[in-house]
Amino acid sequence: MKQLMRWAAGLVLAFGMGGAGAADVVLGPSDVIKVTVFNNPDLTVETRINESGALTFPLIGQVQVAGLSTAAAEKKIADMLDSGGFVRKPQVNLLVTVLASQQVSVLGQVNRPGRYPLEGKRSVLDLLAQAGGIAADGGDTVSLIRKRDGKTTKETIDVVGMVRSGEMQRDLELTANDVLYVERAPRFYIYGEVQRPGPFRLERSMTLVQALSVGGGLTVRGTERGIVIKRRDASGKLENVKAKHDDLLQNDDVVYVSESLF
């Protein structure tokens, strides 16, 4: 069930991500676009918007399009062709073939990390779905890192908690150059007299007795008396904690099960 909830974030919108209309795309430097004018094939142009945000178009020369939606850029080119007396009431169509200026980085424990274009309005869940969802080793939370006016901010979003509670206002809308980072899931370690020693995923509110169950239970030589949790305090110092069955484990706890003396 918990694994299903983790994947829900990626799947909820996987079928609802139908591409945004072309009018939603905001143009910027390095975008590659194709412009056609109805009944004027000689005016077809495929070009990259330069660093100053302009493109060169036949007859009318430089056209500043950075910051415009594709619909607004179409209208601007059409108006310039019409007002210049080159084409009367032209029907201009602009298609973005490479959207390089409006991208978000999705990194960490996702199935397909990389940079993804923001084609219209996209949210955290949208981009996680595009990146193939959270990987098996991924945690339940996502860090959203943004840079605005020279200042970098970091916000942590509990994806599983958001989907479980239905509080979708936390599914924030993304903008160009945002970074989503999925941390590795928290772990605990168990060794000593257990059937399956090793590292395991730390689930929410996991108790010691649940951890023992994940480890396959005690061996015939193991004893529940004197189980110790090795844990680092706030200063990083390692301490031994006498463990009880209902104690909650923390990230990177090491559970040691000793051998019975009798």
Count of separate structural domains: 3
Order of helices and strands: HEEEEHEEEHEEHEEEHEEE
* Radius of gyration over C-alpha positions, nearest whole angstrom: 27 Å
Largest sheet: 5 strands, mixed
The CATH architecture of the largest domain is Roll
CATH superfamily label of the largest domain: Outer membrane lipoprotein wza domain like
The quaternary state of the protein chains shown equals: single chain
| Overall helicity | 10-25%
Q: Looking at CATH, which topology of the largest domain would you report?
A: Outer membrane lipoprotein wza fold like
Average pLDDT figure: 89
How many strand units? 15
Q: Which spans of ≥5 residues are poorly predicted at pLDDT below 50?
A: 1-22
Strand order of the largest sheet: 7-6-10-8-9
Summary, kept brief:
The protein folds into three domains: 2-19 and 102-184, Outer membrane lipoprotein wza domain like (Outer membrane lipoprotein wza fold like); 26-98, wza like domain (wza like fold, 2-Layer Sandwich); 187-257, Outer membrane lipoprotein wza fold like (Roll). The strands form four sheets. A five-stranded mixed beta sheet has the order 7-6-10-8-9. Strands 12-11-15-13-14 form a five-stranded mixed beta sheet, covered by helices on one side. A three-stranded antiparallel beta sheet has the order 2-1-5, covered by helices on one side. It is of the alpha+beta class.
